[in-house]
Amino acid sequence: MKKTLLTLLAAGLSVGAFAQAIPSPDWTNIQNTNFPHTSAGLILMDVVDANTVWGLGNYGSNGRQSNLYTMTNNGGLTWSVDSILPDTATYQISNIEGIDAMTCWMSAWTKATGNKGVVYNTTNGGVTWSNVTPVGSFTNNASFANFVCFTDPTVGIVQGDPVAGEFEIWKTTNSGTSWSKIAGANIPNPLSGSEYGLTDSYFSLGNTIWFGTNLGRVFRSTDAGSTWSVSTAMAGVTEVSRLAFVDASNGLCSGTSGSASNLWRTTDGGATWTNLGQPANVGFNDIAPITGTNWFASVSNPSLTMAYSMDNGTTWTDWGSLNIGYLQIGFANSSVGWAGTFSDNALVGVGGVYKYNGIPLGIQQSSSVPVAINMFPNPSNGIVHIQLPSAKKGLEISVKDAIGKTVYTERTVTTSTEDKTLNLQHLAKGIYFVDVTTETN
Question: Which of 280, 308, 361, 382 could make an S-S bridge to 425, C-beta 3.0–4.6 Å?
């Protein structure tokens, strides 16, 4: 059995079923995944950018995975739903990986026999899906497709369990038109013939890819899958079920033993890991970087938790929601993120995902007292006066629109508190966020 995730989802659904759901003040924008059944869980989600998200659903209370995807290409204003596979009996989907609003990939394993697998993709926004499984892959009874991952639109890998003592990894450099098998000599051997990978247990950042195993090890490639190294084993860990990195060195993972999970941290790119235990408020359903920052976010369904960490996982701040079981979380940037949950248990197509609507994340104040910035008039006609603090080493003014896109930036040096006029009349009418960043604030 590759994962207990779906069992956890089903068990957790009833926890908050009869209590009033109260979202965090920073997550009050609820959107409709539009799955055609009630209590549908958004069990897999890939945030591509500030407009595009792809996700996979399940059938709610029974936890059974569907063959339906949901996606948005307009920041979540609308979500469209359709089938990936013609039925739910042949394959079980391992992961979903979006490239843009038109292109998405998924891997799956054979449901009846619990092995082998396929790779599918769409290049027309999900209207049709094509079988692009590497020729000769996943034919052995010991094989199993765990995930497909792309480091850019053309370069990607599909990773599978060991066959004849070697992990099965295939790579493409032409968007899946052709694939080549990575030589076993380029991949560290599995431990004692019993080590294998896990579905959706991977993370990529630039050309670096990490994946976890059932024996507490993390494999890493820094050249988009051509060569690999492996970490020392985490003591007592039987599953590395979630991986997340804010940069090439600093990352977190959840290490599971039986039904208990601990949080682990690396500062050397995954070569070694430190056990952080179970910090208060951390969620183990999903852990993700807040893209563009050095912060992490996490969610949990059984414990109904949503939290963020500013110190590499040591402590977690609860976002303040009540009675909501979250399954997935992901950010496009410091201002735009989504958290997947269950749709309404009585009304079809209602709810299922929350969008972040709080202030931009990732800038820590130098003290517990926020620095006030006087800015007027507000609203304005585009001419804005802003009082800047003293910043002899320089400061940056950044203006972002409602979806997090930077529309104006300026760097200046101020020797004392001074007033500055910003001419933003070229921008369309709307709501904008102004960030003033100094060396310490």
Answer: 382
H, E, C per residue of 273-332: CEEEECCCCCCCCEEEECCCCCCEEEEECCCCEEEEECCCCCCCEECCCECCCCCEEEEC
Peptide bond into 389 cis (omega under 30): no
pLDDT digits (tens, 9 = 90+) for 211-241: 999 999 999 999 999 999 999 999 999 999 9
pLDDT at position 374: 76
Provide the whole-model pTM: 0.81
Q: Any idea how long the chain is?
A: 441
Does 162 have pLDDT greater than 90?
Answer: yes
Taken in order 271, 277, 283, 289, the sign of the CA dihedral is negative
Q: What is the pLDDT of residues 17-47, one digit of tens each?
A: 447 889 999 999 999 999 999 999 999 999 9
Strands 53-58, 42-47: pairing kind: antiparallel
